[in-house]
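hey so u asked for the seq, here:
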Amino acid sequence: MRPHHERRFAIEYGLSLAPSVMCLDADVRICAPITADLRFSPGLTARNACSLQKRLSEQFEQPNLTPKLQHKQQVIEKMARRVGIPLNSPELRFINEFLFVVTVDEGREREFLRGWGELALYADTLGMHKHPTYAMTLAAAKSRFPIYRSEMVGLEFFDDRVERVKIKAGKAVKTEKASYFKQQYQIEQKPRSPLQQLGQRAVQKFSLFYHRVRVQLLFALFPSSLIDAPLTKGPSCQDSLTPP
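ran it, structure tokens below
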């Protein structure tokens, strides 16, 4: 299982401590103190979300799909069939998971997280190791866990993709957060020799092959060992996550 999906364990533990848990990609920066009046509705609130139907049509309704895209489309369709959710349902939302919040909703959050885990593992056995948004949106629909889009007013953050869109639209000036762009470039574009790049790709390919085989075996023999969260020991966490 790739780390794209394993954040669900941190979310589940976080919900034992607070009613809402915010999840950010590693390259997202909080630029100012969060306002005390920032509140979220029960369910999943994403900074960026749109129609899943529209997103899928943009990706797959085009001539000469690459084998990689064809495989991705097939896995997503199999995931939807597994939970009995039509992909053309207008209520399905594509979540850009770089910044989202999960808020308790009368136990549906537990159903959502477990459904997410089951779909993530299923996709992993089929060779799709990332793109968690598809497991998330299908699990949310199956568990009736609502999804919202919010501008999150009061949360000052930096994400290079979002910031470039704002700059292009004239809603921001690049110089305002130039230091963040510079820091991110230095981290992500660290120079590597051709030999280092070749070695890195070889390690990645071996890692994907090894983990795919491992997950396939464990999912077939002991699925709960992968789906259930490795909870931190302690009565407060365990008690809060045990269904009534």
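The first helix runs from residue 3 to 15. The chain has one domain: 3-158+191-241.
lmk if thats what u needed
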